[in-house]
Amino acid sequence: MSIGIVVFPGSNCDRDVRWATEGCLGFPTRFLWHETRDLSGLDAIVLPGGFSYGDYLRCGAIARFAPVLESLLEFVDRGGRVIGICNGFQVLTELGLLPGALTRNRDLKFICEDASIEVVSSRTIWLKGYESGDTLTLPIAHGEGRYQCSEDTLMKLEDDDAIALRYLINPNGSVNDIAGITNPEGNVLGLMPHPERACDSVTGGIDGRLILEALLG
């Protein structure tokens, strides 16, 4: 069993994720350059945080055309697990695997702090280690993390039990305090907080550990 981490020009959290998955959790992990189409032998894929393609146009707008993401769509259709963290969440919305969009924070400032997060739904495989109502402390670091969607999309997210995480104190103005969502099938998770930065009690707590453990079930 193995994990792939997509690396775009401008990614800056790919090594953080590998340190967490391989160094802390002992999961075999390999980097996937954005031009590759070969996802063979992988059980789960991470789209990490950073500034893919310099965030030109808007966050994730250029990355969504990367060759690796063409293969990712097929990977998801086969039931493969995909998690998009911060910029990775933005890429997933641009790609259409998750609805809505991530826009400039309410106060138009970059936010870097710990956030209190509530587990809204444990339906998805990503949160099976938690129970609904559990609270986590996870780091956030973003300038465009304000989740927005139409009222119809929000209603569908609620009907599908696809709102995975909410901020207890909303730092960026996201609609309905949303910090993370899944697709209806539950195999794709996008979230703005960084679970890879909360996998070790020495460096930042372990509240994100169970999310990453779900990469390999």
What does this structure look like?
By secondary structure, the protein is α/β, with parallel strands linked by helices. Helices cover 21% and strands 26% of the residues. A 9-stranded mixed β-sheet has the order 2-1-3-4-11-10-9-6-7, sandwiched between helices. The relative contact order is 0.18. The mean pLDDT is 95.
Please give the structural blueprint.
Elements: E1 3-7, H1 14-24, E2 29-33, E3 44-47, H2 67-77, E4 81-85, H3 87-95, E5 101-103, E6 111-119, E7 135-142, E8 146-148, H4 151-159, E9 163-167, E10 178-182, E11 188-191, H5 209-213
Parallel strand pairs: 1-2, 1-3, 3-4, 4-11
Antiparallel strand pairs: 5-8, 6-7, 6-9, 9-10, 10-11
CATH topology: Rossmann fold
- Morphology call: globular
By CATH, the superfamily comes out as Class I glutamine amidotransferase (GATase) domain
Radius of gyration: 15 Å
Total separate domains: 1
Which strand-content bin applies to the residues?
25-35%
List SSEs in N-to-C order. Answer: EHEEHEHEEEEHEEEH
Low-confidence stretches: none
Oligomer: single chain
The biggest sheet, with number of strands, parallel, antiparallel or mixed sense and barrel status, is: 9 strands, mixed
Keywords summarizing the entry:
217 residues, alpha/beta, Rossmann fold, nine-stranded mixed beta sheet, two-stranded antiparallel ribbon, 5 helices, 11 strands, 26% strand, globular
Provide a compact summary of the structure.
With 217 residues, the protein is an alpha/beta fold. It has five helices and eleven strands.
